[in-house]
Design brief:
alpha+beta; seven-stranded mixed β-sheet; Heat Shock Protein 90; five-stranded antiparallel β-sheet; rod-shaped
């Protein structure tokens, strides 16, 4: 299974590398902690068993049977815990089958070392066992049965150690080990985070530069990059250059096509005058339709060609101020007011497109206004928001639909828009913006346009 396809992973390379590396480090540390803890337990239990073996042989060497068959001995194991009551460290020596002749450590007191019946002696007459004393402590024990002296009497030597204290020692070691390895794991995770951030920094730099290419702030991705992504950068730059060449060629062809089509249409328009008057309206209507259709597709091709390449950056304030000044001179009785949140607003597009959009909108607003037109601009949710309003009679929903049609005119008594608002909508759509007509609070029409833009930093 490909881990990068698991749904629980975020859809970013940095997050995936960090999470997977961190998980691997944590799992590895947990496994190491478990292995070390188990090895420490085994070694501790082995050491305890070795101590028991040494002590039981010490007991064997200090006991003997006198000539009357009395068990005698005064062992010193060098461990004071065998002298403390209920310490869990006990020993006893007794003739097999006769507990009355038993000699035991002071710590054993009135207790007995009772070996579980399921534990059997091995070939050397020894056996290891576990039991609990009266205080509930877990004891690790060892028994050896031997013949003392020259007699044939078999004696049992038994000794125990407190395994509970051993378990506490192991638990304490495990806690210290867990703390140390946790710090180690945290350092690995931190190092992984820094390495991922540092390792992917060139990609972030390339993405940032590519964004500048898209907004027109740069023409290619420059800089030094690691060998692993250098081919990708080179191919991307080649693609940008190729795309620019193709777009420029398309612009030239669109311009040539416009000239080649306009001339025949003009000739046809002139030749209409030679036709009988009854036929002229029909042919004139068809020629106008052809001219409109040619203009529609030429405009769309031009807009599409521009928007597919690097986008320019056009300061908004100078362009709109110039348009307002021109329209105000043509309409001296109309008060044209502009309101900008910030004069440093930038339109991420070409100046010609900005002029075409708002030249139509401001001119139309002034044409139908009673006395005032208001233009406002601001940044709203990362988009450039511009509104053009007038205090005219406004338009109904049907009028708005008609005005948006190519060549549509709401008021036939005034000079029409020619291609109408549809060309404005085409330009806005090519910039992935939005355009909407609605009722203005001033009484007339409100045109709302959203375009890519930002504040100049």
């Amino acid at each position: 299974m490909n881990l990068f396809n698991l749904k629980f992973l975020p859809n970013t390379l940095a997050s995936r590398l960090f999470i997977l590396s961190s998980l691997a480090a944590i799992i590895g540390v947990v496994i190491v902690a478990f292995v070390i803890s188990e090895e420490y337990r085994k070694n501790s239990e082995a050491r305890l068993n070795e101590v028991l073996v040494a002590n039981i042989f010490n007991l064997m060497g200090t006991f003997e049977v006198d000539k009357n068959g009395v068990l005698m001995g005064l062992p010193d194991l060098g461990d004071s815990r065998y002298n403390l009551f209920d310490s869990g460290y006990y020993w006893s020596v007794e003739k097999v089958g006769e507990q009355s002749s038993r000699i035991a450590s002071i710590s054993l007191s009135d207790q007995t070392i009772t070996i579980p019946s399921a534990v059997e002696l091995d070939q050397t007459f020894q056996r290891s066992f576990e039991l609990k004393d009266k205080t509930g402590q877990t004891l690790q024990g060892l028994e050896a049965q031997v013949f003392l002296g020259e007699g044939d009497e078999l004696y049992s030597f038994r000794i125990t150690a407190n395994k509970s204290s051993l378990n506490e020692e192991i638990a304490s070691f495990t806690r210290r080990l867990a703390l140390i390895l946790s710090i180690f794991a945290l350092s690995i995770v931190t190092a992984t985070y820094l390495l991922v951030r540092l390792g992917l920094k060139p990609i972030s730099k390339a993405v940032e530069t590519l964004g500048k290419v898209r907004t027109g702030e740069a023409t290619r991705i420059d800089g030094e990059y690691p060998d692993e992504i250098e081919p990708l950068i080179a191919q991307t730059n080649a693609l940008i250059e190729s795309n620019t060449t193709i777009v420029e060629r398309a612009r030239t062809q669109v311009g040539n096509l416009a000239h080649s089509l306009k001339t025949p249409l003009a000739v046809m328009q002139n030749e209409l005058q030679k036709l009988p008057k009854k036929q002229q309206p029909i042919f004139k209507e068809q020629v106008d339709t052809m001219r409109n259709q040619v203009q529609v597709y030429l405009d769309r091709a031009r807009i599409s060609a521009r928007s597919s390449t690097s986008i320019a950056n056009t300061p908004l304030y100078p362009v709109l101020e110039k348009l307002c000044s021109v329209v105000a001179k043509l309409n001296p009785a109309t008060d044209i007011d502009s309101d900008f949140d910030d004069e440093g607003l930038i339109f991420e597009g070409e100046e010609h497109d900005l002029q075409e959009i708002f030249g139509n909108l401001i001119e139309n607003a002034a044409k139908y206004a009673k006395s005032a037109v208001k233009i406002s601009a601001r940044i709203n949710k990362g988009r450039l928001e511009i509104t053009v309003e007038d205090d005219g009679l406004g338009m109904s929903a049907q009028d708005i639909k008609k005005a948006e049609k190519r060549g549509g005119r709401v008021d036939e008594g005034k000079v029409g828009w020619g291609l109408g608002l549809s060309i404005v909508r085409d330009i806005v759509d090519e910039y992935e913006g939005s355009f909407k007509l609605s009722k203005s609070k001033m009484g007339g029409v409100k045109a709302l346009v959203l375009l890519p833009g930002r504040k100049d930093t």
